[in-house]
User: What shape does this take?
Amino acid sequence: AVDISLSKLLDIILQMDKVMCTQRTTLLSSWISHARQWGSSSAEKDDLEFNARNQISLWGPKGQIKDYASKQWCGMLRSFYFPRWEFFAQQVNLALSRRQVLNSSDVDKALERLEEQWNSRRSSTFKSFPDEGPQVPSETIMDLKELQAAAA
Assistant: This one.
């Protein structure tokens, strides 16, 4: 039952990402590109991107106030939140299959590494958003209706 619920949660995250891709104002790519525009060198642009990513994820060098300024944006849901929840789901299922208690300390440390890796990525080497910009809302809604009908 837990495996099914976590699987549904992961599906919902991806569906939410698709919905958020319908608005230019909720694209992770916009946030990152606006931050990078302020830089005058590649190194400065990379620093600004790190700070932009950090502000909406860990909020501090080591996640002192995690998710303080979290955003439910296209690209953010798919590239940051989905892997976090997917990893957590894998760890829960592994603990259940072994009939062990989930080691939350180990899970937290592994999640911190995942989050720090996401913050260290740069848009020049990692695309977390659609290149074509916002999706057409009506097409997205029809796609989601089809998915829900197939899941029922």
